[in-house]
Amino acid sequence: MPNPVLEFKDASIFQGDSLVLSDVNVKINKGDFVYLIGKTGSGKSSFMKTLYADLPLKSGEGHIVDFDLKTLKEKDIPFLRRKLGVVFQDFKLLTDRTVNDNLHFVLKATGWKDKAEMSKKIESVLTKVGMKTSGFKFPHELSGGEQQRIAIARALLNDPELILADEPTGNLDPQTSVEIMEVLQEINKNGNTILMATHDYALLLKYPSKTLKCDENQVFEVVQRKAQV
């Protein structure tokens, strides 16, 4: 039986008082890799922000990782976000501390206390993204692609039920974008569910998967052609 980690029924998504998307009916099951595409201004960011409760869901039904977005209380937002891993286009690493300290900061903020367990977890997520030996570096000592790998590692710290990747290759060159996609594909193969907003149609052709498109105030699934071998 499919196990939905995200489901919207007849939902409307607003940015302030402006209706951005209407009649949203979307379901993402555990283990899926799903793209979210659409022109700038088509509602991708508003959709993503609604998922991690940066924007409230005012109309319709929305459930994500066992939280009801319609009835979500302010005090529950941190608990929702702990079950999500969010990867941003601009990395959002703390520039004044090392990679290890960036990850340690997140663990501490989310309630971890045992230092040995924290170190073990940090080593584990850095290994998953191929950055095991970079823990002592500062963000400015890393390339853009390496910084994004660290951002993905950070998203994995609390074993999220869903990873939201918002334009994760937006600031990267084509070769580095492919490397980051390989990391995300590997993480998905290991059982992590991923929703990735992207403008990069070359990646969709190279790694075809379920695709949702925002267009004319709607979100709908598009059928992809298979990649040319």
From TrEMBL:
Molecular function terms from GO: ATP binding; ATP hydrolysis activity; transmembrane transporter activity
Short name of any one Pfam family annotated for the protein: ABC_tran
Statement: the UniProt record of this protein carries the keyword Cell cycle: yes
Start and end residues of each ABC transporter domain: 6-229
Classification via InterPro entries: AAA+_ATPase, ABC_transporter-like_ATP-bd, ABC_transporter-like_CS, ABC_transpr_LolD-like, P-loop_NTPase
SUPFAM superfamilies listed in its UniProt record: P-loop containing nucleoside triphosphate hydrolases
One GO CC term on file: plasma membrane
Keywords linked to the UniProt accession: ATP-binding, Cell cycle, Cell division, Nucleotide-binding
Taxonomy, superkingdom: Bacteria
Gene Ontology biological-process annotations: cell division
Biological function: Part of the ABC transporter FtsEX involved in cellular division. Important for assembly or stability of the septal ring.
PANTHER family, per the entry: CELL DIVISION ATP-BINDING PROTEIN FTSE, IMPORT ATP-BINDING PROTEIN
Family stated for the protein in its record: Belongs to the ABC transporter superfamily.
Record's protein name: Cell division ATP-binding protein FtsE
Organism: Bizionia paragorgiae
